[in-house]
Amino acid sequence: MKKIWLLYLAGTLVLGASEHMTVSRNGDNIQLQSPFPGGYTLLRNFSARGPNKQFNFSFASLTKKDMKPFIIKRSGDDACPWNLNSTYIGADHGDSIASAVIFTEPHGLTEKDCGSEWTDSKGKKFYVLKIEKPTIFWVLSENHSKDKDIWKFIRPKAGDTLTHADGRVLKDFKVQYRQLYSPIRILSRKYLADGKPL
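The structure assignment produced for this chain is given below.
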């Protein structure tokens, strides 16, 4: 790990000293090329194809003429999200407030049930968000926060029941968290090199 860090740092120093860099773009894929000691070229790759369409680091590699690039650093999750109300949103993250209700047998719900209200054995309300598959659907609880500026959602409890107003009852399920995408919306994006569109 130390060797990779030193290589990356050296590439940054050379870039600053030589002030020579080439930027190329193919759709949402961007590559920066700059000289590196030993006759190498340092390639740094980025993309804007994350789950929130965010700009993200991909990997860095070294290459020479007639030589296949070899990777010296991978960056799979380096875009920085926000932490709001104890949950990460943005970057590679959705809002992890949704719950997947998981059954071993088909639950019988359809897209028409999205938005429907279900209550657990204590009267707490949950609303169907999504039908993931015949044995899994997503719910979101009502907001339990007493502060108008902060939300607080809960999850159904495995082993409990969920009851609809029409009399349907669901039981014998497990619960997992799910992330809601996209919690943020990128309204515009510009690619510039030396102040000019790329």
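Interim note for the steering committee: Helices lie at 2-18. The radius of gyration is 24 Å.
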